[in-house]
Design brief:
Blueprint lengths: L1 E6 L2 E7 L15 E2 L10 H4 L3 E3 L6 H15 L6 E2 L3 H8 L3 H13 L3 E4 L5 E4 L6 H9 L3 H25 L2 H16 L3 H18 L3 H14 L9 H19 L3 H32 L3 H4 L7
Parallel strand pairs: 3-5
Antiparallel strand pairs: 1-2, 2-4, 6-7
């Protein structure tokens, strides 16, 4: 599926990176099925967060593979979900079948999809079984300064999105944000919480009526979103739900500055937690006890 968005220079062609679906459960095989008539619980505007301008320098196959990988890791495409047939999926993406196959080959090498032959076969999402070691390795790549700088960037984007949402959100968009909070409240596993929290963040930016802010939120979530749920317990989850609920109330009351402050405070708390965890990893690495972290309940299952 291809959307045409417009700026002063005319139409810009953006590719939809296969995220306007939601898994439909219930098959006897336990496999989720792609359903084009539904979407991931996101509004149409939010779905445009998954639209990215083609970067010809990086190649279409790399772009498709990267976007799909980000979505799988964030839980926006569900584990065991079967993707559409290659010809249909390639048409939706506006790429050739050869390009799509190259992208899927990259994902297979990364262990994110698997292909089965024969009746009932196809390409299936294979979410990482154990995220923690990979997340800890990723967190190690950040310096303390880098985490704080990233937090400043996130606060600027999320704060602005919340402020504009309070100014511009329509009633049905506020209702949708409230539903996203309830999804977050009902989430019982780390992957469900990650997915619900990501959707909420994207929807706030979508309610700001800003495609650029929405795409930037998605990019930031892909960079750091799954790290945010490392070392979170039930109390942290409840606090996050309360904070998100307060933000929706500020948006509903059309209070731009309180909405901005709430969003920025949430990011600051995220950043402080990540910095503290990074400091702990420094200490565990120094004493040769880093494996202890991997054996603990991290809330990302």
């Amino acid at each position: 599926m291809t959307f045409l968005l417009y700026d002063d220079g005319g139409p810009i062609n953006y590719e939809l990176i296969v995220l306007t679906s939601i898994a439909v459960k219930g098959r006897s095989s336990g496999v989720s099925e792609w359903d084009e008539s539904a979407h991931l619980g996101l509004t149409t505007v939010a779905v445009q967060a998954f639209l990215a301008p083609l970067d010809e320098a990086s190649g279409r196959a790399d772009l498709v593979a990267r976007r799909l990988a980000e979505a799988i890791r964030l839980g926006l495409i569900l584990d065991r979900e079967r993707l559409p047939p290659e010809t249909k999926l390639a048409e939706q993406l506006g790429v050739s079948t050869v390009t799509l196959r190259e992208a899927l080959a990259v994902l297979r090498e990364q262990g994110l999809v698997t292909t089965r032959r024969g009746r009932g076969g196809g390409t299936f999402v294979q979410a990482p079984a154990d995220l923690v070691p990979g997340l800890v390795r990723r967190l190690r790549r950040f310096s303390i300064h880098g985490l704080r700088d990233l937090g400043d960037h996130r606060a600027a984007v999320s704060g602005t999105a919340a402020r504009l949402a309070a100014e511009r959100a329509l009633p049905h968009e506020v209702d949708n944000l409230a539903r996203q909070v309830e999804r977050l409240r009902a989430a019982t596993t780390g992957s469900e919480r990650r997915r619900a929290d990501t959707q909420f963040t994207i929807e706030v930016a979508a309610a700001a009526q800003s495609p650029r802010l929405t795409r930037e939120e998605l990019r930031l979530r892909a960079e750091v979103g799954d790290l945010l749920w490392l070392q979170l317990d039930a109390a942290d989850h409840q606090a996050s739900v309360r904070a998100r609920g307060s933000l929706v109330e500020a948006i509903e009351r059309h209070e731009p500055l309180p909405a901005r402050d709430l969003a920025e405070e949430h990011v600051r708390e995220d950043t402080t937690r990540l910095v503290n965890l990074r400091l702990r990893i420094y200490e565990l690495d120094r004493t040769g006890q880093a494996d202890q972290l991997l054996g603990q309940d991290t809330g990302v299952s």
